[in-house]
Amino acid sequence: MLLKRLVLRNIRTYENWEVALPRGSILFEGGIGSGKSTLLLAIEFALFGLGNEKGTTLLSIGKNRGEVELDIEASGRDVRLHRSLVRSRKGGVNQGALVPAGVKQDECWLEYDGRRFTYSPKEMKEAVLKLLGYNEPQDPKAKSLIFRYAVYTPQEEMKEILARTPEERLQTIRKALRLEEYKVAQENAQAVAKDLNSRAGRLQEEAKKLPSVKEEVRKLEERLLVLSDSISRADEEKMDLEIAIRGHRAMREDLRKKLEGLAAEAKKEQELSRALADAERRIAGLTSAIRLNREKAAALRRKIEEENSRLRRPSVPLSEADAALRRARSAMAQETELQGNLAQIYRSLAALVERRVCPTCDQPVDGEEFRLRLRTAKQELDSSAAKRSALEKEVTKLEEEARASMVYERAVASLADQEDRVYDTEQQVLTDGEELGGLEAQRPQLEAGIATATEAAKGYERANEEFRSNEAEIATLEHKVDQVKEAKVSAQVEKASIEAQIADRKARMAELESCRERGDRLREYVAWLGEYFVPALARMELIILTSTNREFDEEFGRWFSFLVEDSTKGVRVDEDFTPSVTQDSYEQEVANLSGGERTALALAYRLALNKTVQRRAGVDAGLLILDEPTDGFSKDQIGKIGDLLKELDLAQAIIVSHERELEGAVDHIFRVLKEDGKSRVQPIDA
Ligand SMILES: Nc1ncnc2c1ncn2[C@@H]1O[C@H](COP(=O)(O)OP(=O)(O)O)[C@@H](O)[C@H]1O
Ligand SMILES: [Mg+2]
Question: How many other C-beta atoms are found inside a 10 Å radius of the C-beta of residue 666?
Fold first, then answer.
């Protein structure tokens, strides 16, 4: 990597400054606090971001936004890196002093091949590590370890590593050489082995269930055989039952036909019984009618005889009596008329006599004569009255006779009438007797018919009984078929469930087998990790540490003797990388060295570390950045820096120092100046 240009805006004491960085060795020289270290911090910030550093250490106090732009050449490519800082939270006041607000990283981008790629700070760090070929963990909370140990040594870290305890130092070296990764790998491998072991344990524990599942399968398979057997038995039974049912159904058909025939015959019984009952009723009716008619006829006959015996023939037949009566009545009528006339005459004569004057001529009448004539009239009238009374008696007598004749005649007619009725009655008795005879002759026939029909009805009952028992038998058989079917279905259901269970258990067995296999395999992995992998890592770590230690020791000695021209003094590191000095083969305490010698020792140590880390990381940086490497150096020693830089043979070396004497040791000099608190960098042509 080569650094080509650096721009700072609102970074610490820089408001807005740009520095073009040439190839070769460069010296930034200036007074204390002029802003030299700031340049290096800005470079590191541009490359890797803040890491675990606070943004407030870089952003100028009182500014809200600052940025750094760095042009580099890496992997044959010109790249511009840009990072910025913004003040986010508001500041405050602490015990009267202003406390700056929090600062965080803002917009970042990379520009190359004419394209700009904008990133988050984390992504930007990843991209830069890739660009530089730094293969290290991409922890955004840390800066680059490789850069820190292979390229750039901050001012305060120059001697720091020597001041540490051996453990801390070894820790740092291991970190720089990334040997920690072997430790981490071992720990991880052990953790994995532990985890695998417990997993294997669980799997093997689980696999112990295998025999019991196998036993379950065996029992289920036995049950399956029993069920298959009962299913096929159910089929046979069903077939037998169905044959029996078919037989019974045929029988039922026969019985049905037979019943139909018998039913028709049995039905006649009712008709015949009704006919017989009718006939019997008729017979009873006729018998009683005959009896009553006979009695009636006998009674009538007795009455006729009685009446006949009482009957007297009259003296005159009715016709004669009637004629005589008519004559007498006529005579009586004439007599009555005559009597009336005579009475008239008499009453006229009586009046003449009385008055003695003729009413017609008004002549006095001879009384005597008229008295005589009155007497004669009286006599005639009396005789007529007597005659009429005789006639009256005659009529009464004749009427009597006529009535008697009529009564006789009527009685005779009534007798004849009764005779007729007797005849009719007797005639009816005869007719009824004939009908009765006919009916009685029919009766045995009807009775025989009824007997036959009754027999048929009995036969019907028997056949029906048979029919019913046949039906009951069919129902029983069908019920049995249903039972057999049910039994079969439940056996099939159980069979299916058992088959499912077997499948399930077999799957479980396969699972358990695989558990066992996996458990065994995991145990192998555990053994491999524990017995081979972890020890191998430990050996590799040791080998690397040992070989690095040897390399380091050589480099350390080389740079130290470069800086300290004292053939009696030598340096070396022990296996903990603890440096020690030998003087004439005697151990010399580091504390006993001069200040310059101590700085030289520190620089040599740092240079050795740079080299070994570069080699381990596989990066040939071609770039070295040192901040105040010559603190306490004598003029002679400072003069050696030029040779040292030549010996290092770097594409670019950046040295920050307040020592003007270093000017002769470098290719390019930049003066860092600060006026009114503002820094600027000024190139001075050597
Ligand atoms: N956030 C800051 N804003 C402004 N100045 C700062 C800030 N942090 C440090 N400084 C000052 O910047 C100056 C330059 O520091 P530095 O570059 O380390 O000096 P040197 O040239 O000695 O290496 C110092 O005076 C320091 O106090
Ligand atoms: Mg400084």
Answer: 22
Ligand 1 atom with minimal separation from the 57 CA: 1
**CATH architecture assignment, domain 2-89+100-148+620-684:** 3-Layer(aba) Sandwich (3.40)
Q: What is the pLDDT of residue 637?
A: 86
> Which pLDDT score, from 0 to 100, does residue 680 have?
95
Cα–Cα distance for residue pair 270/265, rounded to 1 Å:
10
Which of 11, 12, 27 to mutate to test ligand 1, by most ligand atoms within 8 A of the CB atom?
Answer: 12
Give pLDDT tens digits for 435-458: 999 999 999 998 998 898 889 889
Which residue minimizes the CA distance to atom 26 of ligand 1?
33
657 lines ligand 1 (CB under 6 A): no
Strand ranges of the sheet holding 2-11, from the earlier edge strand across to the other edge: 14-20, 2-11, 65-74, 77-87, 103-112, 115-119
Residue 623 and residue 652 in contact, taking contact as beta carbons nearer than 8 Å: yes
pLDDT along the chain (686 residues), means of 10: 97 96 96 95 95 91 95 94 88 62 90 96 92 82 87 86 86 85 91 95 94 95 95 95 95 92 85 90 94 92 90 85 91 92 89 79 79 89 92 91 88 91 93 93 90 89 92 95 95 95 95 94 95 94 93 94 88 91 86 86 92 86 90 86 91 94 94 96 84
What tokens does 584 get?
A: 């004439």
- Residue 84 tokens, joined: 């910025």
Listed by start position, the domains of the chain span 2-89+100-148+620-684
Distance CA 607, CA 146 (A): 14
Q: Which of 601, 502, 496, 505 is nearest to 559 (CA)?
A: 601
Which atom of ligand 1 has the smallest separation from the CA of 61? 3
Say how far apart CA 31 and CA 51 lie, in whole Å: 28
Tell me, using a 6 A CB cutoff, whether residue 38 lines ligand 1: yes
**Residue 25 Cβ < 6 Å to ligand 1:** no
Of 192, 170, 191, 167, which Cα lies nearest the Cα of 179?
A: 170
Are 149 and 176 within 8 A, CB to CB?
yes
Q: Tell me what pLDDT residue 93 has.
A: 65
Structural contact between residues 68 and 7, judged by C-beta atoms closer than 8 angstroms: yes
Which residue puts its alpha carbon closest to atom 10 of ligand 1? 12
Rounded to 10 deg, the angle between the 180-207 and 367-528 helix axes is: 130
Rounded CA separation 414/53 (Å)? 171
Q: What atom in ligand 1 is closest to the CA of residue 35?
A: 17
466: its two tokens: 């048979």
| Per-position DSSP letters for 272-319, written without gaps between them | HHHHHHHHHHHHHHHHHHHHHHHHHHHHHHHHHHHHHHH----SS-HH
Q: Distance between CA 385 and CA 392 in Å, rounded?
A: 10
Angstrom distance (rounded) from CA 275 to CA 283: 12
Give the position of tokens 């986010």: 88
683 half-sphere exposure, CB direction, 13 A CA radius: 12
CB 159 within 8 Å of CB 602: yes
